[in-house]
Amino acid sequence: MLRVSATTTETNIDLQMINGDKTAAAEQTGVEYGLELMKFAESLATRNNSDLARDRQTLLDVAGEKVLVDAAGVAANFQRMVRIADSTGIPVDNMNAKVSQLVREELDLNRFGSAQNTLSAAKVPVPEV
Hints:
5 helices; mainly alpha
């Protein structure tokens, strides 16, 4: 979704920031407050409460309340969507399958245990779009 929205808005982004690549300068991510957002998201995903408290405060201090609330809302929405999709077995549609495969390969997402539930790990052919 990030790649599609970046393409739509003609924003150049570095998807490796999703993998927590802190070596990339914040200005290079192509996303305003990119480094702070990345750290906040990583703290949420790892469920590290002390890091989360620190990174939430940093994001608030640097970007303000509106950005913090939006970031938390986006994270909560993604958690909701993933849980619904996983629990109901919603398949990836043809339009998103190829894009999803390319992003999974670029970010090496198949290294995670949950990748066994994806089309690429199941060796299901991904239709061309």
